[in-house]
Amino acid sequence: MPQRLEWEPAACPLSGTLAARKFAEADGSGHECEPVANEREECMGRLIGMAIAPKRRGTMQPIEAGEIAVTSGLQGDARGRKPGRQLTVLFAEDWKSACDALGVELPWLQRRANLLVEGVKNPRRAGARVQIGGALLEVTEETAPCGLMDKAHPGLRRALAPDWRGGVCCTVVEGAAVRVGDSVTLL
Known about the structure:
The chain is α+β, with helices and mostly antiparallel strands. It folds into two domains: about 1-40, no CATH class; about 45-185, M1 Pyruvate Kinase, Domain 3, CATH 2.40.33. The chain contains four helices and eleven strands. It has a seven-stranded mixed barrel. The protein has a three-stranded antiparallel sheet with strand order 4-3-10, with no helix packed on it. A hairpin with a 2-residue loop joins strand 7 and strand 8. The chain is globular and about 35 Å long.
């Protein structure tokens, strides 16, 4: 079996099952958390970071908790009213892959995402739904890396381009208060 990445097995109800092992072997990632086709069980991860930009193109400010609203995205973030892109979600494993491609470790805030999650695989498709705590989000598109990424670190834009590594843009279906440590479920 391929080597496992830094997942928390207790967070996933599939971990250790035959279906999970088959997926890990077929996928080659070693991550047992994603179910194989026709499995109806869910996989859970957790929210490990939150940030807002009080002004457009402003410095990202980490927060521990906040309100996600249907009308305005993550409270305090200047970008939350943009249709189809109320907030952005970055997947820790994809961020690590991008940094590994550059041979550096960079703070996730340089990606300028609102939410950082771990232990769930990036759905890489519009229409996918993600439950974070009590909030329900719908993926609208890939978060395309922009020129600000190369200002953060040379080559970062290119390293984020493959396989939706830059994360996903979401619209809020159901708002709720969320905090670092909340569960994350792909529906």
